[in-house]
Amino acid sequence: MSKDTTKIGLDIGNGFVKLVWDGEPLCYYNTVKEVTNEKLNNMLMYSPYPTFGYEGKKYQIGFPGTQGSGGISTKRYGEPEFKREALFAIAQIVNEPNQQITIITGVPAYHIDSDYIIEELKKNLQGKHEVYVDERRVTFTIESVHVLSQGIAAMITRCFDWDPKRKEVYQLVSDEFLMKQYLIQEHGWGTTEMFVIDLSEGGVLMKDTNPTGMKDVTAITKDLISHKYPQLRIGDVYTSLYKLDADLRTGVLDLGSRKVPVQDIVKQVQMQYANEFKLWARNSRFKLENYYRIILSGGGGSALNAAFTEVYKPSVVECMVDSQLANAKGYKIWGEQNLNA
Length: 341
Fold this sequence. Notes:
The protein has 341 residues and is α+β, with helices and mostly antiparallel strands. It contains 10 helices and 18 strands. It has a domain of 173 residues: 2-Layer Sandwich (Nucleotidyltransferase, domain 5). Helix 3 packs across helix 10, helix 5 crosses helix 8 and helix 8 packs across helix 9. The longest helix has 21 residues. It is globular, with a radius of gyration of 21 Å.
């Protein structure tokens, strides 16, 4: 790895793309749509994100009603959709021709032990690339790709940080804190990842994936609101669960001419979900009473924090600061700590 390579933490999740580097982090909906109708070109200026040109086609990102590569398929990481999502994120932070890039990323619990998946991911992304960002030609080379466990990345973020000005990683917690056993509970859009972490024992002791995520919580909430307030026709207003999720976090639906408080329904669904999730965790052999901390991470961690604090023992539950970026930040810190030789 060359000395002047740019190390980035990249998390291409089911719901959002997150990228952490030495500048302002990126976080937006993991959705890509091809612009196939030239008449739409006049509307591109209204997008908050750049327009991308790649291999002769034009794309836009970050629209909540479109589709990304998210899913649990083992083939996802070798697909062109996944590659475009990664390249479009990286192209936004490239600031010089032929910039050298090192990616540190991760995969879910059910994929981390597959050598095939990791090799497909690396093969798909490594090499020289050319992307147009709002008509500006951007070139870069992905020198290498390093793949970590998502749980380890979140734990790194909890315990360490990176100072880009001083170019050093520093410890946030006591040595005693590092010797305890933790449960990382990462609430993503499509799934929830569980990792038992003990750094004194070498890292991940146990892991599992619950096939539900924030999209399921949001869909159930949508159904209950529709049943209670059929006159609102929220199915017509909220055609995208992404947009509904964002509004539900405020506890108020913005219907234009009126605002409808739905905090009670949101809390009802979240409490029901947390109780059912606790039962699943116990049945999956997670000994919830044994962990020094149960750390909530992922984009859903902050939304579900109050419910899990009430359902679990409150004294052991904590939510990561900026939980949505926790993995990407952990990847970046790991890279700076281990790839500077």
